[in-house]
């Protein structure tokens, strides 16, 4: 890929084999006896932005963590970028290289500087030379407006800054799809905006995104579809405008009235 | 309501709260009872320290060659002086001591090189210290190559042997301990149970038993004609024994690393060994420096137990010298000397570990 393509997503010329980025068919998962995911069927097309919401414990995080096999599903099929997810470690690692993930608690590597956090995977997983990895990391750090902190350690940054670094770290691997697991839930209110701004830019550049969040403003602005989950099931799925203005199921109505009502 | 229209300038703290006098007043003489304790404490200290100094320095004999030179009532360092070569090199032949000296020199140079931050080429020096130097040291100490006369291992002894046992034990126990600790947390049942059994076996057996088994029992199991050097057997026993302790220290560190760290590394597509080697272990080892050094120090002191299988480490050779009929009655000097040498090494390790902790601290929790 040419380095001229310095848009945030870096997906400009990806190997497009299928229009479906993520496909889940009849996925079921249990934690011991507890049935966390029940008959999940859904798909994400390339370039789609999807927001998943629902009450806590409804299985939203588990769902997206199944996509890169941080959680194992017990039944059903998951296909990511045309590659079926199996037990095979090599294949799991191949899928993970093409799937970026941003965590609620950032999970930056505290023993490495911001720059090293962004270089370590390109250097050790993609075998990029150090200089190339660093140049690329600086470009992404600039895009998330944190380049001046490159030499600092994560512990010296605020929560919002750390989360932006985490986004840059993921982007450095040129993922085909980005998973966001409640990226703003651990942030102080005044820091949420700086992270959401970066995510909106990313969406506008055409990155495929799956985002578990309670930021309904974000969902209204950028989502192509909103998925509502409760008790391990997908209850409702719709474009944001009808989803918010005219929710079909009672549970969705109840949930929306609770989070938007006051 | 506005409290103060003008900004208040910074003022110096009251002078009676700063400086050594204020410290003394606050910590030693804050109340009558506290003052009493301080004075009693000082008096006890005086009773202990003054006679010690008189014995060890003021009334001590330093120069001479025989016990006749020890006339005064203080310590007789003449004994240590006369036996010094033996304490350092054991029964190593006098004519070949230059070989041991080269190894000593190389050993301390390498350690200093690795410990002093300003010196360059750390990586290559470390590789040489771990790969090249042991070979050089073996060839020099053991001989049998390049016209160097052979010096069998039962003639090695003293501080040289102590340092050899300790450094081989440390360099061996750390990586084996890391592998065992990772294995104990593995999802693979066979690997996991092997590591658990290994660790629990070695931790459950006294080191003396291990050394005895290595020296007495092991030859019984080996086919006749194959014999393993006694020093090598002791080294293997010591290393495996300490690696079990090391494994548990490191496992503690691994458990303290949040699960999110490994998940983030996995989400970036790293393989198991990269997740461990690049992300989890560097953090765990750094966090566990005090525990690792603690294990190192106890290993260093445990080397004295090789005495019971007939190897003469520093303490062993001091004890052997004490039974020399020319020098009967100087056991206190001998033990004080041995204790002092051990203390120097253990204290240096402890200080270095504190320095390392400060240096590697990147001011983070998460």
TrEMBL record, chain B:
Domain annotation ABC transmembrane type-1: ranges: 159-353
Compartments where found: Cell inner membrane; Cell membrane
InterPro entries with a match to the protein in the record: AA_ABC_transptr_permease_3TM (IPR010065), ArtM/GltK/GlnP/TcyL/YhdX-like (IPR043429), MetI-like (IPR000515), MetI-like_sf (IPR035906)
GO molecular function: transmembrane transporter activity
Pfam families the UniProt entry points to: BPD_transp_1
Membrane topology category: Multi-pass membrane protein
Gene Ontology CC terms, in alphabetical order: ATP-binding cassette (ABC) transporter complex
Main location as per UniProt: membrane
GO biological process, one term: amino acid transport
Transmembrane regions listed in the UniProt entry: 35-57, 97-116, 123-141, 161-182, 194-222, 276-297, 304-322, 334-352
Key words of the record: Amino-acid transport, Cell membrane, Membrane, Transmembrane, Transmembrane helix, Transport
SUPFAM superfamilies registered for this protein in UniProt: MetI-like
Similarity annotation: Belongs to the binding-protein-dependent transport system permease family. HisMQ subfamily.
Protein name: Amino acid ABC transporter permease
Source species taxonomy: Bacteria, Pseudomonadati, Pseudomonadota, Gammaproteobacteria, Oceanospirillales
